[in-house]
Amino acid sequence: MAKTKQGKRDVDAYTIKGTNKVVRVGDCVLMRPADTDNPPYVARVERMESDGRGGVRVRVRWYYRPEEAKGGRRPFHGAKELFLSDHFDTQSAHTIEGKCVVHSFKNYTKLDNVGPEDFYCRFDYKAGSGAFTPDRVAVYCKCEMPYNPDDLMVQCEGCKDWFHPSCMGMTIEQAKKIDHYMCSDCAKENGAKRTSNSYPVPPNSDSKIEAKRRKR
Fold first, then answer.
1. Cα 29 to chain center, whole Å?
2. According to the model, what pLDDT value does residue 212 have?
3. Residue 5 CB: number of other CB atoms within 10 A?
4. How many other C-beta atoms are found inside a 10 Å radius of the C-beta of residue 192?
5. Is the backbone peptide bond immediately before 134 cis, with ω within 30 degrees of 0?
6. Is the pLDDT assigned to residue 180 strictly greater than 90?
7. What is the DSSP string of the chain?
8. pLDDT in the model for residue 66
9. Given 58, 156, 177, 209, which residue has the most CB atoms within 10 angstroms?
10. Separation between Cα atoms, residue 97 and residue 23, nearest integer Å
11. Which residues contact 147 (CB under 8 A, 6 or more apart)?
12. Residues 84-142: pLDDT tens digits?
């Protein structure tokens, strides 16, 4: 352990009260909100130190949910999406309720099952200005929206773009049953009839699986 201020020392690990889960620097954690009707806050532990009175204080970097950021939640934001903010804070370790995993966007889309402790992040967020990094991402479909991993999409065999069934006048059930899909623009160019696609695969996936993840 390294010395910090007098009477305080850096702590290597902290066991969450009432559990056998051990938190270390770099871990992502769920922290108890002031209003217990709200979901827990999500943060990354940057530092831990004893408070000199037998307690532990943690310096954290907060993740924001879309509804907590300027501009609010938009249709392409997934249910488990978080933004890594530049907002740091120091809290009592007693407010840590559990551990979680914040995946990269690419790794999240490859999960076979999404658990309650799985989240993902594809943007850094400046809390003061409301700016995002990156400020541009790929868009898909006629609606020109970024990919939401909760939504099923189908791929055109012509242009290789991805489309939401609802934007193409289909239900999700219809989209799951189709064998081939060609968007209206490609169908016109090829003089083909508009049919549908057997590959309801998300744009970032390497295997032919449904875009909507099963939650356990």
1. 14
2. 33
3. 8
4. 13
5. yes
6. no
7. --B-STT-BB-S-EEPTTS--EE-TT-EEEE--SSTTSPPEEEEEEEEEE-SSS-EEEEEEEEEPGGGSTT---TT--TTEEEEEEEEEEEEGGGEEEEEEEEEHHHHHT-SEE-TTEEEEEEEE-TTT--EESS----BTTTTB---TTS--EE-TTT--EE-GGGGT--HHHHHH-S----HHHHHHHTPPP---S----TT-SSS--SSPEE-
8. 97
9. 58
10. 11
11. 76, 138, 140, 153, 162, 202, 203, 204
12. 999 999 999 999 999 999 999 999 999 999 999 999 999 999 999 999 999 999 999 99
Which phi and psi angles does 7 have, rounded to 5°? 85, -5
Domains of the chain, earliest start first: 14-133 (2.30.30.490), 154-200 (3.30.40.10)
Amino acid letter, 166? S
